[in-house]
């Protein structure tokens, strides 16, 4: 028997992966409740077999969220794919456990997608900041063999130039616009339609951690979807 409450559709499903990050995960969840309004959403936490009491703390402090308790560490991509299977949202918001929302970001993402849905919008995200308010790596360009060889060459023969170029590339998104196109959005905050995610069969399970979001958005780009 499935109740009507369980069947109820959500605007957005927020999916957080937890792995021995109890305190920061709790802070992340609390920031969602503090900042989010005007939208119907759910929070799903997929715990990758933490041993720091994360599961017990989440169930005690936030009993209304869905907690999926894995018996092993599935990595980032597989754990998120598992969370999507339980998601009721029309949209998915993949959020790192070490982030906190500073505004009504989920509603902002949702409204942007709704108003631009006919323009083949793929994934969207925001400019991330560290604890001191400095902008940090929030998006990037797709890697290529040429770029890898160039970075390797620079790193070996001219370390200082390599560091400065890397910093410049990581901050290429700093332009004075409300939104702009990028190759990929980092997985720390990744907003996407659920049916698009499922159309692409989700994150590639061969990526345990890192580059799974880049791979996903490269496949989206091949279908002429754009990331912002």
Structure explained in plain terms:
With 228 residues, this protein is of the alpha/beta class. The protein has helices spanning 4-7, 22-35, 54-61, 75-85, 105-115, 145-157, 159-170, 194-199, 212-222; strands at residues 10-18, 41-47, 66-69, 89-95, 139-140, 184-185, 189-193. Strands 3-2-1-4-7 form a five-stranded mixed β-sheet, with helices on both faces. Strands 5-6 form a two-stranded antiparallel sheet. Helix 2 packs parallel to helix 3. Mean pLDDT is 85; it is low at 1-7 and 165-175.
In short, what is this structure?
With 228 residues, the protein is of the alpha/beta class.
What descriptive keywords fit this protein?
single chain, disordered N terminus, 228 residues, 9 helices, five-stranded mixed beta sheet, alpha/beta
Tally of DSSP helical segments: 9
Envelope shape: globular
Please indicate the percent range of residues in DSSP E strands (runs of 2 or more): 15-25%
Largest sheet: 5 strands, mixed
Share in helix: 25-40%
Task: Give the uncertain stretches in residue-range form.
Answer: 1-7, 165-175
- Name the helix and strand elements from N-terminus to C-terminus, one letter apiece: HEHEHEHEHEHHEEHH
Structural class by sheet pairing and helices: alpha/beta
Mean pLDDT: 85
**Oligomer kind:** single chain
Euclidean distance between termini CA atoms: 41 Å
Query: How are the strands of the biggest sheet laid out side by side?
Result: 3-2-1-4-7
Number of strands: 7
Radius of gyration: 18 Å
């Amino acid at each position: 028997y499935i109740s009507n409450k369980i069947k109820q559709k959500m605007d957005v499903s927020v999916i957080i992966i937890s792995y021995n990050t109890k305190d920061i995960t709790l802070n992340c969840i609390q920031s969602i409740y503090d900042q989010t309004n005007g939208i119907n959403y759910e929070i799903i936490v997929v715990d990758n077999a933490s041993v720091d009491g994360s599961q017990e703390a989440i169930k005690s402090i936030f009993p209304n969220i869905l907690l999926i308790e894995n018996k092993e560490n599935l990595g980032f991509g597989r754990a998120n794919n598992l969370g999507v299977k339980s998601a009721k949202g029309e949209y998915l918001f993949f959020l790192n456990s070490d982030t906190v929302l500073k505004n009504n970001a989920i509603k902002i993402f949702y409204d942007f997608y709704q108003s631009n849905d006919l323009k083949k919008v793929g994934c969207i995200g925001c400019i991330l900041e560290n604890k001191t308010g400095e902008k940090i790596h929030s998006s990037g360009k797709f890697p290529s063999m040429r770029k890898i060889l160039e970075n390797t060459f620079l790193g070996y023969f001219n370390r200082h130039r390599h560091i400065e170029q890397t910093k410049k590339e990581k901050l290429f998104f700093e332009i004075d616009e409300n939104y702009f196109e990028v190759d990929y959005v980092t997985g720390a905050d990744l907003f996407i339609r659920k049916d698009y995610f499922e159309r692409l069969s989700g994150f590639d399970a061969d990526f345990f951690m890192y580059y799974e979001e880049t791979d996903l958005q490269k496949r989206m780009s091949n279908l002429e979807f754009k990331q912002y």
